[in-house]
Design brief:
Blueprint lengths: L4 E5 L4 H17 L4 E6 L15 E4 L2 H4 L3 H15 L1 E6 L4 H10 E8 L12 E3 L6 H11 L29 E4 L11 H9 L5 E3 L15 E3 L6 H9 L3 E5 L2 H9 L3 E4 L5 H4 L7 E4 L2 E4 L1 H5 L5 E2 L5 H12 L2
Parallel strand pairs: 1-2, 1-4, 2-3, 4-5, 5-6, 7-8, 7-10, 8-9, 10-11, 11-12
Antiparallel strand pairs: 12-13, 13-14
Helix pairs in contact: 1-5, 1-8, 3-4, 6-11, 7-8
């Protein structure tokens, strides 16, 4: 029977939530009249603002609960009382998300075959996945419960908000996101400066980091570092002429919103977490290539003598015509 209520469990993180959006859109298309709620951490809830696929956002206050069993049990009981669902989809695949699913399960609870911490044993239905792109993994869970795939895939992200005081015209700038919380993923501050110097157009520096920027900064570099919310980052990505980013949450937003992207990967595998759009560019192992090559076979692309950020900037300049 078609479910009347659906609960999606994907509390974090930023990139993982973005990867889940197309699968949830397919679930919505399969059961358009069902009430669909999504459990998410408060800090990532702006990603779901205004999403037409989601009827209700359920906040999981993980930091407030602090791992305290009594507080967590109270929250779980509240979840069960308000969101007992015919179909529960655990896209997170951890013990805590499986326990959430079990509390809220009114019919079926489905998850992924490689769920960790014993979560798989809580599931009624299991979608078998391997080493494949995160988007494909989520799509397999949607397919397992009966949501057939249809193209094109849809990423229902909000329009975002223009940063206060930001005066550059839409489509006039390159957005650079050079820093990541992941160890060994970030560019240096000097590389960020060199990238801006190699381009003639404005370069907007965005993201969060404690890095000290070069002094003096290039004249075409607009520094919004540590001054953008998630909604503002989404707006900047939507209206950029081109986006260059290390492997990070904002890169995944860009991969969902635009083909005009170059993603820089050091140790992370772009086959699993790189840009999903075939037109996007990837720098990996000193080679520049498009994402479509990863689906067609070994990536050959354009070899670089070194992972020189100036060479990357020159490539971007060629792509944008100046």
């Amino acid at each position: 029977m078609a479910p009347e209520s659906i609960l999606v469990i994907k509390p974090s993180s930023l990139g993982d939530i973005v990867h889940t959006l197309p699968a949830v859109s397919l679930v919505r298309r399969a059961w358009p009249t069902a009430r669909l709620a999504w459990v998410v951490n408060p800090e990532w809830s702006p990603l779901l603002e205004g999403n037409p696929d989601v009827d209700e956002v359920v906040l999981f206050p993980r930091r407030e609960l602090g791992g305290l069993p009594l507080k967590t049990l109270r929250w779980l009981r509240k979840l069960r009382a308000g969101h007992r669902s015919d179909l529960v989809l655990d896209f997170q695949g951890l013990l805590r998300s499986a326990v959430m699913g079990r509390f809220a399960r009114g019919g079926r609870l489905a998850g992924l075959s490689d769920a960790r911490e014993g979560a798989r044993y809580f599931y009624d239905d299991v979608a078998h996945v391997g080493r494949e792109h995160a988007v494909e993994r989520c799509l397999k869970l949607a397919a397992k419960v009966g949501a057939g795939r249809s193209e094109p895939l849809v990423w229902n992200l909000p329009p975002g908000n223009r940063p206060a005081g930001f005066e550059l015209a839409e489509g006039s700038y390159v957005l650079l996101h050079p820093f990541s919380r992941g160890k060994g993923k970030s560019l240096t501050a000097e590389q960020a400066g060199d990238f801006a110097k190699a381009l003639a157009c404005p370069v907007v520096l965005a993201g969060r980091a404690d890095a000290a920027l070069p002094d003096p900064m290039p004249e075409n570099l607009v520094n919004l570092l540590n001054h953008t919310s998630i909604a503002e980052m989404i707006w900047l990505i939507r209206h950029a002429r081109f986006v260059v980013s290390v492997d990070s949450g904002p890169m995944h937003i860009a991969a969902a919103l635009t083909p005009h992207l170059l993603s820089i990967h050091t140790w992370s595998d772009p086959r699993l977490v790189g840009p999903y759009r075939p037109e996007a560019w990837i720098l990996k192992d000193r080679t520049l290539f498009q994402a479509r090559e990863l689906r067609e076979g070994p990536a050959t692309g354009k070899p670089l003598a070194a992972p020189d950020i100036k060479t990357v900037a020159a490539h971007v300049a060629t792509l944008i015509g100046g």
